[in-house]
């Protein structure tokens, strides 16, 4: 139903988020969109860039009188640092001397593969587009999707559950706190377990001292999802497939699991499968599960 | 290979053209893009709007140092009249009193179907998006596609071959003049037959006097197209199908023919089929045709 | 919502029609599907092949206990002449001597373009797939689509309105007879105007005597279509565009018009636009039109 | 470039694999396709069904004289047990008494979600389509894709690297043996580490004794892949995204990682990133990596 795309380079004039297919009449809360953009810029141990950005969504089309009108939505996120880059990355021919070469492709990035693919003599253009800054445009799109889902009573939230060797103590306890975490006005690491968050911060501090970085795991939680989204009828319409593809398309993501998928691979079925029960008064369908692994 | 979309309302802040899939390294001649936008605004008997517009392509992404870089291209076409419309069509809630209702849906437009579809109490939002102004964004995309095809030696041109009851005298003679017509700095009706063009102008004058309008036919000519684009292998990959769908998606188009398709429906096969010959030295494949109906 | 594809060669073992996306619970009337296949094989002046075929739909999947089950539907149409072709067109290497070459590419067909595209030394494989026989698989898919639309009260019918220089006298009178024509057990030319049909037959007789063929025009009529299918919001979602692309993908079609599109191109707007009225009791929306050109 | 779909129910007459987009002229080794189908049916501790199946690919279209001809390929995999099921799952209305209800939806399967989605009173139809048997059709398609990639020098192989708590000792040693493992005529667990394979077998034996099952991990290895497949330019064209979506669409898969993705989440960047070097004579591009984590 929805189609979305982004365009824009990390240090170009602007990112553009394009979203088609939202129904007409959806109230668009611009503060919520900007808050989501702000949340993306938080986190501990991030580079100085985040301070420059302070993204705000400039809606160019598709929203009128505070509501969607059924037309495609284009959102521009202007680069506040463009004045300092317009000579290095001009749209026009410009002065080649001002070009900022990226002669050493960075491992763990698209730099080398991209330069080989497009036959670039260096990796500047790859870095510009493969940059995690592109995800800001996706956050704007995601914020609109969240507003739409909210009308259906569905809430999508996320939190950090591991940084390096540190993991939260208990997933189920964390689930209860995720909403609260997502509403905070000060964000350290978006972790719903305060003790774990403190230890995660220490992990980050440690690697920052040595100029290193460290991996982590975030979990996306969706409340109130009706059964039957997607379908098993064809491989490319399965919900798991669509979700895995979308998440894996984020710049730093190298693994995706549904529920307790990774642990399940090393477990007996009896420890993994969520037993189905039935209790007439249980909403919305009467069916119950004792666990939530799948 | 290419994906393209547009967004924007007729009297909104801007149209955005989105184009993904052009290879890196294509020289982007901005003057050519702007000239194509200028050509769209020419024609005889058009409304006053065309004088306000004077569209210029503001490339936001995907082009650096005068060339494509493999990233998606976003082009913004700002609405020069936006200052006069921002209170009538604000993104924010705004003042509902300033809204300009379109209470009478116009026949021959999407107004009524759109208002019924989206349950709008009047047709303003439909008019805004279903407007022919949207095609300006497609012209910008088409200009880039033409620049790409030019690298492959392919030229795509168009001209007007009928207005109302007036048609050009001879299609084949016109074909020879189409390129010349498309290069003119003054455009009357983009017709390659000067006599017919004069009579077309008179048709337009006549209907304008009575407040009426008049239909017409344009032909798109592509030179140097290699055989084998598209494929007969699946219905939705056939070149005829893709072309017909694209042309029929233009706001005022209600019929499409390939070659002499309409006339062919009323003719014997012997008068329609283009006989195939072979002459080794005939470029590029040696095969020849005595006619060009298909 | 629906995706459909076909596979199969004209003289191969079978065509397969593939259809995904029909909801579960739709009653599948196999007699209706077979009748639609039978109707495709009727007509006046057709080749002897039609007598061999007598297609019947062999449903392999997606239908159980007489109803769709939400799974993709595959329908096999076996080629009754396969025994006579299996040595000429074996799946395995086979005996190359038995191959039936098509050394002279036929004009008005994909033969030449296809052979050049795929670098075939002759056109047999192109003829096999580009053949109009492929449309039998689409008829099977279309029959299921009609059964689905029927549940929504929508009827899609078609009739022949011109053969060569002969056209029906009055489109509006014909519309009233189309349903009746589509129910006949003997089909001459599926024309709803008996006088015109007789003259069409004579046109065909005439060209058959000289070994020629003749073009024609068919019209598709849909009753009870709700306003708002498709959308003006994006070029590739417009109903006109989707219909034109689908119709133009049929093997012999070279032109498509929506309503009176061809004539409209030569007419003043006042003669074309369907005036909109309103009468509360007019179903389903209260809006009325005095004509049906668009 | 390629589009593929499957149809068919687990106990229906046949599965159909549909593949569109392979170029003409590719030699189709049917023995290889059947061997891939045979490999799918091997493994340790599987149900009795595997003995009934012995799938063979019946190519209905798209292959002639042992080669692809550019047309869509349809492959039928007949269900050898259909005679025993045709009264339980007839295409026609049939005898409802013969229907085999699945009244208890199985956890860890689509049974419950599917029945709720399509409003089925029991889960038979869901079980039939959501079944892992569907993957046989994908194996046939994958076999053709492998034959195509082989022409380009690319080999795609797979092996089991963990079952329950047992993992192989060393991934890099295993990589060297994967090809050999995939060529074996007797398959135990397709594990390239014989000691680990023996222990995996014991894990399976253990759970079988208690009527339980156990999870596992398989790895897909591709040799000789050129850099630059997919692109970072748009989220839905990234290679990681496409691969993750495809793998996650398999019936029992609940997690996907690229390279050492899962471990990377708990590691410092310095331990994960594959350092890039350059040695002119290193094929194909001169660039080298000391590790292969990404």
Give the SSE map.
The structure is a homotetramer of 294-residue chains.
Chain A: E1 3-7, E2 14-20, H1 30-41, H2 49-53, E3 58-61, E4 63-64, E5 67-68, E6 73-78, H3 111-118, H4 124-130, H5 135-151, E7 155-163, E8 166-167, H6 171-183, H7 194-209, E9 216-223, H8 239-248, E10 255-257, H9 261-264, H10 269-272, E11 276-278, E12 287-289
Helix pairs in contact in A: 1-5, 3-4
Could you explain the architecture of this structure?
The structure is a homotetramer of 294-residue chains. Chain A contains 10 helices and 12 strands. In chain A, strand 1 (3-7) and strand 2 form a beta hairpin. Helices cover 33% and strands 18% of the residues of chain A. The mean pLDDT of chain A is 94. The first copy, chain A, is an alpha+beta fold and 294 residues long. In chain A, the strands form 4 sheets. A 4-stranded antiparallel sheet of chain A has the order 1-2-6-3, covered by helices on one side. A 3-stranded antiparallel sheet of chain A has the order 8-7-9. A two-stranded antiparallel ribbon of chain A has the order 4-5. Chain A has helices spanning 30-41, 49-53, 111-118, 124-130, 135-151, 171-183, 194-209, 239-248, 261-264, 269-272, and strands at residues 3-7, 14-20, 58-61, 63-64, 67-68, 73-78, 155-163, 166-167, 216-223, 255-257, 276-278, 287-289. In chain A, helix 1 crosses helix 5 and helix 3 crosses helix 4. Chains A and D meet through helix 3, helix 4, helix 8, strand 10 and helix 9 of A and helix 3, helix 4, helix 8, strand 10 and helix 9 of D.
The whole-number mean of residue pLDDT values of chain A reads 94
Radius of gyration of chain A from CA coordinates: 21 Å
Q: Which geometry of chain A do the CA atoms define? A: globular
Unreliable spans of chain A are none
* Total DSSP helices of chain A: 10
Number of strands of chain A: 12
Main interface: chain pair and counts:
A-D, 73 and 73 residues
Our measurement of the CA-to-CA distance between the termini of chain A, rounded to an integer number of angstroms, reads: 25 Å
Order of helices and strands of chain A: EEHHEEEEHHHEEHHEHEHHEE
């Amino acid at each position: 139903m929805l189609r979305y795309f982004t365009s824009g380079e990390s240090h170009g004039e602007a990112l553009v988020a394009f979203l088609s297919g939202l129904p007409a009449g959806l109230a668009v809360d611009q503060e919520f969109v900007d808050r989501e953009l702000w949340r993306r810029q938080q986190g501990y141990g991030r580079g100085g860039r985040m301070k420059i950005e302070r993204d705000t969504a400039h809606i160019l089309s598709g929203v009128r009188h505070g509501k969607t009108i059924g037309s495609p939505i284009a959102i521009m996120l202007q680069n506040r640092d463009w004045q300092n880059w317009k000579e290095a990355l001009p749209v026009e021919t410009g002065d080649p001397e001002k070009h900022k070469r990226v002669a050493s492709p960075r491992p763990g990035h698209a730099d080398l593969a991209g330069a080989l693919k497009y036959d670039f003599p260096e990796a500047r253009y790859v870095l510009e587009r493969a940059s995690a800054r592109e995800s800001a445009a996706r956050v704007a799109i995601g914020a609109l999707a969240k507003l739409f889902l909210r009308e259906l009573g569905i809430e999508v939230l996320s939190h950090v559950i591991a940084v390096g060797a540190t993991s939260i103590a208990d997933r189920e306890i964390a689930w209860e706190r995720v909403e609260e975490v997502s509403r905070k006005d000060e964000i350290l690491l978006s972790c719903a377990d305060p003790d774990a968050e403190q230890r995660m911060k220490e992990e980050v501090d440690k690697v920052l001292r040595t100029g290193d970085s460290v991996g982590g795991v975030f979990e996306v939680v969706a409340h109130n999802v009706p059964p039957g989204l997607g379908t098993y009828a064809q491989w490319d319409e399965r919900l798991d497939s669509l979700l895995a593809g979308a998440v894996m398309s984020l710049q730093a993501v190298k693994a995706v699991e549904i529920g307790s998928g990774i642990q399940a691979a090393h477990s007996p079925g009896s420890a993994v499968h969520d037993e189905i029960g039935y209790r007439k008064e249980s909403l919305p369908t009467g069916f119950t599960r004792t666990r939530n692994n799948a």
